[in-house]
Amino acid sequence: xxxxxxxxxxLGGSLQQLLMADEIMPGSDASYQICKTIYAYHPLxxxxxxxxxxxxxxxxxxxxxxxxxxxxxxxxFEAEWARINADQYIAQLASxxxxxxxxxxxxxxxxxxxxxxxxxxxxxxxxxxxxxxDPLNTAGSLVLNQDPNAPDFLxxxxxxxxxxxxxRSRSVVLMNERPLYIEYTTSAFGYVGRSVYxxxxxxxKSFVSTMVTxxxxxxxxxxxxxxxxxxxxxxxxxxxxxxxxxxxxxxxAQTNNVMSIDLTENIESLxxxxxxxxxxxxxxxxxxxxxxxxxxxxxxxxxxxMVYGFGEGSEDAKNIARYVDTVREWLKPIYxxxxxxxxxxxxxxxxxxxxxxxxxxxxxxxxxxxxxxxxNSFEAVWPSLLQDPESETKAEDVRxxxxxxxxxxxxxxxDRENKMNLIKWAIDSAGENKRLFPQPLILDYDSxxxxxPPVDDKPKEERLSPMSDKF
Length: 471
Hints:
By secondary structure, the protein is mainly alpha-helical.
């Protein structure tokens, strides 16, 4: 029996040559080349790697910077985020990490050597660029220390690419799953995470077999079986021609035609009814095995419409929403990395001068003080994938009524200082509802605290009169 050596085979564009190899058995290693081929050619390869990331990024984060001129500062941040294509780089890095088990991103600046620390305070003036690196690019630098007594035990320290070392501040390494002690990952060339294809390699191979079955059924489904009366033992040319004419008539016959055959003859299609049950059963189980091995909901791979949409919150939708939340949590380090860079570039000193010009309260505040005030109040929250607009509106209405009740009950009983604190709390609480109050309410609390309402000396009857002498 001929065997295919997976490690040395010239793959070309043939997925079948790779995944139909007899030596791929349960527990087989997924090499770097196998992972690349699965992603490039297998029907489920891209979906397994990219679908969770696409779903996680299907909504934009809700950004708030409460201790700032929020609209201007947020718009500057979002504009710079879009300009450098941060979402695209994050998606590419996460995809590489899922394909091979580890992925890296570096930020470079043409003006500064890669070994030097990235000067965050000068980022706005530098020509920066981002590169996504797969394990072959960083081979040798992400092996990870296996000494349990070392401070960098199973941690990466720096990245080297073709002998060029990048400072730790310039890079982020994202792993799919955590590294295991003395468990070498062949697809990542180090003791790091594992490919999403690692445990699913054998069922991925089986899925190719179902594709071969589908192709065979598709080609055989239109086959017509003609049970014709066999001629005698001596067949002359005339009999052969007559049999050929009958087959040709059968081939060309269609709706509204009439065709006559002998009482002992029969014409029928190939019976494939048993293939449907066995084929569907095998394919469904293979997809479930792949989803289980990849630790992801099978509905994502099956590509079926859920019983209810995300808005109604079906069980399928809830499971997928919980899974997407774990993906978003996994992406936090890379989002934090880009948040810092975008803040430095968007909220630069030139931008701050425009803020000082338009907002007098910032005229006497130093740039660094304002920057860290904005940074510390920066908050980016993912909206829930399960959206129930009606219940959300009811909850917001209850919150607003509760705030109003607190004001009405406590304001008359408080001193001036506590009244100001209560007003601040009420305004901050109302400002959390971005749909109802898209613009922040900014008050001068010092002036408000010293404000004395004018005293109306008119008689009570005149004050309550709907008409005035002026009218």
